[in-house]
Amino acid sequence: MVSRSTTLFLSLLLYLFFFAFFSQSESESDTPKVSLELYYESLCPYSANFIVNHLPKIFTPEFTPIVDVKLVPWGNAKLRPNATFNCQHGPNECLLNTVEACAIDTWPELSKHFPFIYCVEDLVYQRKCNEWKSCFETLHLDSKPIDQCYNSEHGKQLELHYAAETDALQPPHEYVPWVVVDGEPLYEDYENFLSYICMAYKGTDIPKSCTKVSYLAEVKSKPEHSVCDKERVDPTWHKLSSTISSWLHKMNLGDII
């Protein structure tokens, strides 16, 4: 079940959404926004860490009015024949990717679908992903639309749409989480996303936080953050494959694999 601290945080998050969206003046609503896109997969621990421990920094009265946030739950999944697909972390990840896609489709407003996705990813972060359905009760949401979506062809079509969107990225994504600000990927400096938002913002009402040294950090040339690589080779299979290959070569059958 979702912990009490998580429930309290989700309540605070909902309050911040309400405050940020409804306290804006008409002039602020016309302020040019910075786009932030997160391409991720549900069971990648580094995606979960980013969603739970970093992305919520954007949901403040200063940043929410100037940023358009988009979540794309597909990540490193691979398309197979007959429009089927495999996910990097197995069938459960395909399920949760689809569930989160359905949440975005069912509740298009960020203020509705992000708390749900945050709740699910917090359980992933705690290694309790099998308890994801408890998020409906925690957030007082109706589970029926989501159940109907991920159990139907519609859920699959949503994922295929996100597959096409992810595959169309230029430059192509190399791993997840893959964070893009105003069309520019942040690569492994993704945790420093607020700095990039500050630099990309063209409005006159600059958030005061953007003047802080922490948000104006120099972009690192080769930052070292943890990611789920696009082409991940299982060490056990790699070792077994090498052993088999060596054996076949000794038997003069090396061309078979």
From TrEMBL:
Keyword annotations from UniProtKB, A to Z: Glycoprotein, Secreted, Signal
Signal peptide: 1-27
Cellular component annotations (GO), alphabetically ordered: extracellular region
InterPro entries the UniProt entry points to: Interferon-induced_GILT
Molecular function GO labels: oxidoreductase activity, acting on a sulfur group of donors, disulfide as acceptor
UniProt subcellular location: Secreted
Family indicated by similarity: Belongs to the GILT family.
Full protein name: Gamma-interferon-inducible lysosomal thiol reductase
Protein's organism: Phaseolus vulgaris
